[in-house]
Write a structure and sequence with these properties.
The chain is of the alpha+beta class and about 210 residues long. Helix content is about 35%, strand content about 20%. The chain has a 5-stranded antiparallel beta sheet with strand order 1-2-5-6-9, with helices on one face. The protein has a 3-stranded antiparallel beta sheet with strand order 8-7-10, with no helix packed on it. A hairpin with a 4-residue loop joins β5 and β6.
Length: about 210
Amino acid sequence: MLLIESSCVGKRPQPELCEDILVVTEHYLAVVDGATDKTGRQYNGMTGGRFAALVLASAIEKLPMKITAEAALACLRRSYNAALDKAGRPPAGEGLPTAVLVIYSGTRHEIWRVGDTSFAVAGVTHLGGKLIDERHAAQRAKVLRACLAAGASVAELLADDPGRAAIMAGLRTQHIYANDAEDELGYGCFDGRPIPECFIEVVAVPVGAEVILA
C-alpha cells in the first residue's frame, strides 16, 4: 500500500482530546471515530469517545494480515469489552462509550465499515449517515431558522446554540437505538454488543484502486 496523504483535525485544539484516530500499518488503513459522550463520564481519564477510539485503534494494529472481516470485528469486540471491563462499565441504561470505523485490508483488498464513516473507491463515494442524525439535524435547523426569523444574529447562535439544546435530550438517549436492527432508527457501532449483520459492510476493492477513508 502507498499512503498518499493523511490528516486528522479534531474539534478541540489539543490532539490528546481528539476522538478520531488514524491507523496506518503495513496491512491496514483505518479511521476510527469515537462518539462524543454526553454524560461527562471518564474512562481511564478520557472521554468515552476517545477511550473507545484508542482501544479499537490499538486492536486494529494487532490484527493478523489475512484475517476475515467477520473474525476481525469479533477480535475488536473482544478487545473493546476487555478494556471496558478493566476501565469500569457505566451504570445500566446510561449508554456505553462507542465508536464507528472503516478499515481497508490491503491483504484482502476489502473495505470493512461499521457505522457512519465514509469512504471512496476509485472515485466512487460511499457517504455514511444514519436516520436518527437526519431527524435531529432537521429539528435543530428548524429551531435555528425560527431564531433567525425572530431577529437573532448568526454570531449569537454560534455563541449559544438553542438548536443543539433542543435536541440534547434525544442525543443523550440515542444509544437505545445502537445495534438495534428491528427499529428504523437503529444504527451500527462498536459498543461491545454483537453488531447485526445488516450494519456491517464489506466492499471489494480492485487491485491498484485509490482508496479514501474519512
